[in-house]
């Protein structure tokens, strides 16, 4: 999934970092809010933070389904939401994880080893019939890597969706 634009060069997809209380049902309430309001979630990732009382939900939203300000306003009304940050691509580090199994061994796939090396991917497992590969990077790189793998026969693929954190020294 690339961070495409909507014709007037404004990003169509925005990454929100939502700090929530780490309690049962919070993720369901956040997802339910999006469903009730008709907001489109492009991707969603959640995990506890360094403080076990809180979790961070990374939500990539499609701002063509609703204005970003409306999405943030509705999220802020949820009682378990502690903080909402929009991660501006210029002031954030974003990444996505891809795990994929292709139907050839690395040695048997002409050019597969080169493709893996060019993208900086990691071979996790190999058998006589298949290779499992991991790549971490921006969404566009993962899209390109996935397209390059198609000729090797993708058996199974999983992507996390974008996650991110503010950079240590934001641009001014």
Which key phrases capture this entry?
172 residues, Alpha-Beta Plaits, 2 domains, 4 helices
Task: Produce a short descriptive summary.
With 172 residues, the chain is α+β, with helices and mostly antiparallel strands.
CATH class (first level) name of the largest domain: Alpha Beta
Enter the CATH topology name of the largest domain: Alpha-Beta Plaits
Q: State the end-to-end distance.
A: 28 Å
Assigned CATH superfamily of the largest domain:
ACT domain
Report on the biggest sheet.
5 strands, antiparallel
Number of helices: 4
Mean pLDDT: 90
Shape: elongated
Low-pLDDT ranges: none
**Domain module count:** 2
Q: Could you tell me the number of beta strands?
A: 9
Q: Which structural class best describes the helix and strand composition?
A: alpha+beta
Strand content: 35-45%
**CATH architectural grouping of the largest domain:** 2-Layer Sandwich
Q: Rg, please?
A: 18 Å
Oligomeric state of the chains present here: single chain
* Helix percentage range: 10-25%
| Order of SSEs | EHEEHEEHEEHEE
Protein model, in words:
The chain has 172 residues and is of the alpha+beta class. It has two domains: 13-87, Alpha-Beta Plaits; 93-166, 2-Layer Sandwich (Alpha-Beta Plaits). It is 23% helix and 38% strand. The chain has four helices and nine strands. It has helices at residues 26-37, 68-76, 112-119, 139-149; strands spanning 13-21, 41-48, 54-62, 81-87, 92-102, 122-126, 131-137, 154-159, 163-166. The strands form two sheets. Strands 5, 6, 7, 8 and 9 form a five-stranded antiparallel β-sheet that branches. A four-stranded antiparallel β-sheet has the order 2-3-1-4, with helices on one face. The longest helix is centred in the N-terminal third of the chain and has 12 residues, at 26-37. The radius of gyration is 18 Å and the shape is elongated. The relative contact order is 0.19. The model has no long low-confidence stretch (mean pLDDT 90).
């Amino acid at each position: 999934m690339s961070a495409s634009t909507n014709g007037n060069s404004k990003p169509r997809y925005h990454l929100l970092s939502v700090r929530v209380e780490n309690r049962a049902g919070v993720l369901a309430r956040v997802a339910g809010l999006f469903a009730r309001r008709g907001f489109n979630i492009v991707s969603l990732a959640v995990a506890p933070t360094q403080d076990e009382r809180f979790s961070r939900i990374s939500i990539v939203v499609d701002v063509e389904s609703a204005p970003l300000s409306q999405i943030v306003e509705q999220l802020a009304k949820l009682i378990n939401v502690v903080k909402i940050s929009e991660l501006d691509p210029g002031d954030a580090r974003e990444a996505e994880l891809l795990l994929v199994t292709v139907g050839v061994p690395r040695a048997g796939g002409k050019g597969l080893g080169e493709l893996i090396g060019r993208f900086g991917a990691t071979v996790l497992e190999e058998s006589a019939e298949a290779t499992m590969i991991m790549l971490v990077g921006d969404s566009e790189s993962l899209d390109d890597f996935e397209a390059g793998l198609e000729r090797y026969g993708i058996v199974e693929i999983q992507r996390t969706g974008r996650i991110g954190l503010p950079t240590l020294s934001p641009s001014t």
